[in-house]
Write a structure and sequence with these properties.
Oligomer: heterodimer
Distance between the termini of chain B: 47 Å
Membrane topology (chain A): Multi-pass membrane protein
Order of helices and strands of chain A: HHHHHHHHHHHHH
Largest sheet of chain B: 8 strands, mixed
Structural class of chain B: alpha/beta
Shape of chain A: globular
Family (chain A): Belongs to the binding-protein-dependent transport system permease family.
Order of helices and strands of chain B: HEEEHEEHEHHHHEHEHEEHHHEEH
Largest sheet of chain A: none
CATH topology of chain A: MetI-like fold
Number of strands of chain B: 12
Transmembrane segments (chain A): 9-30, 100-123, 135-158, 178-196, 240-266, 286-312
CATH class of chain A: Mainly Alpha
Number of helices of chain B: 13
InterPro entries (chain A): BPD_transp_1_N, MetI-like, MetI-like_sf
Strand order of the largest sheet of chain B: 6-7-8-3-9-10-12-11
Helix content of chain B: 25-40%
Bound molecules: adenosine-5'-triphosphate, iron/sulfur cluster, magnesium ion
Structural class of chain A: mainly alpha
Main location (chain A): membrane
Amino acid sequence: MTQYLLRRVLIAIPSLLGISVILFTVLALAPGDPFEELATNPAIPPEVRQNLRASLGLDDPIYLRYFAWLGSMLQGDWGYSFISRIPVDDLILQRLPTTVAVIGASQVLALCIALPVGVMAATRPYSLFDQVANTLAFVGFSLPTFFTGLLLILLFSIHLDWLPFVYSTKIDATGLAWWWAQLKQSIMPIAVLGLFQGAAWTRFVRSAVLDVVRLDHVTTARAKGLPESRVTLRHVVRNAMIPVVTLVALQMPAVFGGAIVTEQIFRVPGIGSLLITSILSNDTPVIMAVTFVFAALVIFFNLVADILYGWLDPRISYR
Amino acid sequence: MSAATMAAAAPPPAAAAGPRLLEIAGLKVHFRTDDGWVRAVDGVDIGVDRGETLCVVGESGCGKTVTAMTILKLIAMPPGKIVAGSILWQGRDLVPLGPDQMRAIRAKEIGFVFQEPMTSLNPVYTVGEQIAEAVRQHEGLSRRAARDRAAEMLRLVNIPNPQRRVDDYPHQFSGGMRQRVMIAMALSCNPKLLIADEPTTALDVTIQAQILDLMQEMKERLGMAVLLITHAMGVVAETAQRVVVMYAGQVVEEAPVEALFGRPMHPYTQGLIRSIPRLDLAATEHRRLEAIPGTVPSLLNPPAGCRFAARCRHAIPACSAAPPPLREVTPGHLAACIRAEEIS
Ligand SMILES: Nc1ncnc2c1ncn2[C@@H]1O[C@H](COP(=O)(O)OP(=O)(O)OP(=O)(O)O)[C@@H](O)[C@H]1O
Ligand code: SF4
Ligand SMILES: [Mg+2]
């Protein structure tokens, strides 16, 4: 098991490096120049501009710039935003907690829906419960988050005026009131993301459980005289979790994509909206760092999935 | 485990003393499908006495597995349905019992070994955990005591290094070893009856003999009865005391093993016996295996009279008029053929 873990971690390093190379190259080749503004400003002579570019290393070949970037990034120096002049790592650390809280809570919500509903539906196939769950899951999965998000804003913020539709990081309240305000402003983004993912995962869980219930070892478990609840939990759900974990891990990039859209809709000042604003303003160091953080998160979740997988399926860790 | 004491208290031959261990009467199990009701088991009578080995033989699809699984109510209901009949376990009918009462009988009173050792164990738990689960369920043993019992059971079924192997996962065992584990699991609560559904079909020929020997040994040591399902007449000849022959969801013949091979009465049984490969004859006379011509009738809409008529070389018009009843032709020897006396 330790060996398996070590191998997984070692594989993650070249993946991260590869991703950083691709990201860096794409961004370096992308059109748009942060000095555009300076170039059109007649007050700045061309020599000054040239010196500035050289001092920032902007005219070096791509591979030199990449190594320079990698070197300083490994030393913890993530560079400065072209626009706000704030260190990139500070910018990201400011935004990350909000994103992690919103995405984290929505994923927990999604799992809390998908696991019980998927298992209940699969163990009672074609029952009324199964059909209702299936239909709702299909609807939830088909509605894009920007649509349900706007719908919720329209209903709860504009029509009923119960919930704020702009997420604020500066709530001037303390104690319980602060938590209450926090809850009120997070509930819609969390619900939108969570219900969407929950619908998708309900379908995964249901089909994974359906695949397991007809296996021979489930009959063996019944032949032992175990109660049906134990058969379901220990011999069906436990085994069905193996494919579910893989699917959930593979979904992580899509989850982050959905989170970016949701952050835009609800104006959540998270790392997703940081990415959008930095792209719009050609703020290359920020774009690079944020995409890299996303990539690292995706790889991290794959690692977690691999570990869970090795733990759930004893046949894996021995290979 | 008190294997020795159990063997000492070897069960007496089933005489008039009390009800039989298992008595299935008029059992009908049908399955609902898109095309209609499949009459998988259609009026089956099977009795098992204490301490005996009863073999159930018949071609693929004749309803052996459905019959066996129905005893423990392990068939899926729906689509399956027990349409008629009774399953008396020591005189008590299992058919009307609820799930909780059935659970008390599974593994504790009746152990079950399945056909596929490769898929019958859960890949994510150690074999020890899987055996211990049954023991803990029925005997309320502690985790540690149940593990010890599991290791003890592995030793009993001749798995080397049981103390170490008890913590191994199923994929670390070969097919034959897994079937030993299945047998250990089925016997872990000292059942009075072991049902084995083609326990050797999925195994290599050399391993098959070992597993059959093991079952024989277990039976002698633990003194339980065995209901062995097979489609191989060779296995029947080696292991059975009594034999039930099934055809298209019904019993066509039942007899002590010597009587069955000595004087088979039903043309289907005669065909089965002729189809046993005989090494001695095959070598000298180059005789080809005699298979029974024709195919099994549809269980969706079986023929009204004798279900074997279309394949029977002795068929006469009267055969198709009404279903031939299973009747005692000579003492202890039953056959469902109107011409049993003339043709045997
Ligand atoms: N769930 C089910 N739905 C519909 N038909 C079924 C179902 N289970 C079994 N049957 C039918 O019941 C009949 C008997 O099946 P069974 O498995 O008992 O045969 P068998 O004698 O054990 O054969 P084999 O030697 O192949 O194991 C078959 O025709 C099968 O198609
Ligand atoms: S009843 Fe008739 S058809 Fe059926 S087995 Fe006997 S002889 Fe053959
Ligand atoms: Mg079968």
